[in-house]
Amino acid sequence: MWREIAVSFKLKSPLHIGYMPFKGSVISPTRYYVPGRNLWGAMTKRITEQLCKNTTADDYKKIGTVVKDNFRFSYFYVYDGINIYFPRYTEQGLKYGNISRSEFEHRFIGSQISTAIDSTGTAKNESLHEIEFINNKFKDTNGNMKDVRIMGCVWIKENAEIGDKKVIISDKAEILIDGFNVIGELILGGESKYGFGHVLFDPSGSVKFPIETVKAEECKIKINDNYIIAHLKYDKTIKFKGDIELLTGRGYYDPKISGGETSNKPGSAISKPEFYFSPGTYIDSGTTTYVVNWDGTLIRI
Fold first, then answer.
1. Pairwise CA distance, residues 84 & 208, whole Å
2. Residues 6 or more apart from 102 whose CB is under 8 A from it?
3. Which of 66, 79, 127, 274 is the most exposed place for a label (fewest CB within 10 A)?
4. CA 21, CA 246: separation in Å to the nearest integer?
């Protein structure tokens, strides 16, 4: 059995969730949401560094496997304190919440250009680098600056333990291990060397996610409609309206391969790319019940 908790994070700094570039001028575009895999990685790092001294790559792998077995993470979406901005492929095109993609980008997305400087004080050739990100602040309809949050769900297996330490859920939806809130402060996504990805647990900001957790041995959910809220592995027999993309991931090791090699260099292990339906795609499959995988992707039942 799995316990569901709604979790909100406040963005302390801009957030960059990288994937393959597709825009002419933006070298490093961002996703407009946070995949569950990023939450798994950030929480694995946080727990490992809290519980282990002089951490090694094997420590991350060991803790990561335990986290994978005992937790599930939804994808996390931009939340302004009132609305959660889920993507949806509609007759009017791609929307986020009830607004158009262009309006969403104007309100929440920014970019930063940087370049390397050589010994003469001038820009190095071919060093121009533009990073797209989710801003940590936005202007509301009255022109007031507000904090940007991201909102999602975490599921914890009944009687979950990390090592010999019990996982406890507090009244504020904190996830406590040995009295330490492991989701209190996380670094999500890429470009952390520029200060990106710093998020803070925000117990005051949570609202109900549009899903229902089904009591079962596996982590099963029922989505309120036919628009998927995470990646779903492509199946040519499914009728759909939306998009398909090639999905992969990077890390110290590939969690999909049991007994795979572990590297001390972050991002050196790249998982095998596979085709998935993108979040927001309308799935006409006769069911809205799915199993949530360790990385937040959905498995059709």
1. 10
2. none
3. 127
4. 12
